[in-house]
Amino acid sequence: MSEENESRQPFKRPFRHFTSPKTENKEFVFGVQSVLETLRSGKEIDRLLVQRELGNSEILDLAREKGIQVQKVPLEKLNRITRKNHQGAIAFVSAIHYAKLENVIADTFEKGEIPFILILDRITDVRNFGAIARTAECAGIHAIVIPARGAAQINSDAMKTSSGALNFIPVCREDSLLQTVDFLQNSGLKVVACTEKGRSSVYAVDYSGPVAIIMGSEEDGISDELIRKSDDLAVIPQSGQVGSLNVSVAAGVVIFETVRQRGL
């Protein structure tokens, strides 16, 4: 990219002090002692599975202390993941370290930039997530927000599909997207839900100011609660026979409409 083009991107500043996530050699660890050590290490854990019939109280207590959700599952499910001696406990380790959204927003304003946030509501397909992350990083989005539960696991497939973008764009994992929307609105951001229920064309909505865009799940789109909280609802005009776009394609449309409005 030329220096002239770089100078025309006032809102694109990689937050490298938030990122520099490290890919783990293993996507999961198993065995009581290994899981306990992983919990104590402070590594980011996406999912923690414990055999329903057993349940290790030390693992459960430590997970609760650290705010990590535990799924109690039958032995058969653990055996499908690995046939090795898992002892009834498997922890999926995240490939990245998550950023704090409040820090991202504060840094963006302090740098004199216009916040551009992407919220993904229950997008579960890893490849869709990776493709969206790649588009978001190319467009200069300041952070991607995902829910703590019901989102795609950020694993090697996501890293690969993102073409490395997840090494450079902050990802924020939030317990409640409803509270996240409240926080963003109180911070001066307009929240736009990209949905088939939209009132306005995506090309008619103003994204030039501080904005957060919500994209919904592959199954049922954006939740009704988030739609009601949004400041505007935008729809992508379509004239074909197929009812909807793939979410990663739809995200690209609205993301680069924002880029266009911001004068790149």
UniProtKB/TrEMBL annotation:
SMART domains, sorted: SpoU_sub_bind
Keyword presence, Methyltransferase: yes
Location of the RNA 2-O ribose methyltransferase substrate binding domain: 28-99
A Pfam family reported for this protein in Swiss-Prot or TrEMBL: SpoU_sub_bind
Coiled-coil ranges from the UniProt annotation: none
Gene3D superfamilies attached to this UniProt entry: 3.30.1330.30, 3.40.1280.10
Keyword annotations of the record: Methyltransferase, Transferase
PANTHER family (UniProt xref): 23S RRNA (GUANOSINE-2'-O-)-METHYLTRANSFERASE RLMB
Protein name: 23S rRNA (Guanosine(2251)-2'-O)-methyltransferase RlmB
Organism whose genome encodes this protein: Aquirufa regiilacus
Gene giving rise to this polypeptide: rlmB
